[in-house]
Amino acid sequence: MKPLFLESELPVDDLVRVGLWKNGKPSLSLENLQALLSGRRTELLTLENVQADGFLIKRLDVKLSLQRSEAGWVSLQAHPIHHQVQRDTQLDENEIEQLTGEHAAIVIKSVKGGDGKYKKLVFEYDPQTREFISYDPSQIQVPEHVNGVALTPEQKKAFRKGLTVELPDGTVFQHRASEPSGLRSDRKALVLSVLLNGGISYLLVRGIRSVMGEGHEQKDEYTAGFKMGLAAMERWQHKKDVPQINLQDLEREARRPLR
Hints:
The protein is of the alpha+beta class and 259 residues long. It has helices at residues 12-17, 30-37, 93-100, 153-160, 224-240, 247-255, and strands at 21-22, 25-26, 45-52, 55-68, 74-80, 107-112, 118-126, 131-135, 145-146, 149-150, 165-166, 172-175, 183-185, 190-196, 199-205, 209-210. It has a four-stranded antiparallel beta sheet, with helices on one face. The chain has a four-stranded mixed beta sheet with strand order 11-12-13-16. The two termini are 23 Å apart.
């Protein structure tokens, strides 16, 4: 997806402090780096020997994200595992109960900003860190195609709001700000096409967690639509003269067991 941050904007000092900058580059997986640059949180990371406020923390399980100040400075934000749910003053008790009790994946409500104007925000709950996450749906980039199927304006609107979208073959997916990939689905992999710099680019997204939550088995991702998306991705690679991966390699990669 379209990055909100450039790799050149990464806060090197912050990454050095948490031991995630080595040999002149971030020592993060590609998926976690893309999550940071896209304005999302990484997966849960285990950091060791972290310097914080004059203390040495031997071990810390945490998610990371980037934040841009009003002055334009980019800093690293830590989201540790909290022992209790972190209350959000923008949510009432009923909304908190809906999200934490898994009665609803998202809550959409109008919130008054610092300028006195109201705008709609989407709220999620991250059960790993026990925090609430909110985002402006108008800032979410929506795929043009998923598994070779063009999304309708109604489906794009639903995706921005974190609602589930269903394709003709039964594939279900939704945007989730709490996920490093930005997605949840009933399939472990999807092929997306997105608009970047005025042109179409393709992404093979693997390791997608279940839209139904942990413990729910996902369907076989290797559908006719998925194969069609892979074929379109191969044609795009050839046309754009990007590093070539043939269709067979893509198929094997999509089927490779997750680590």
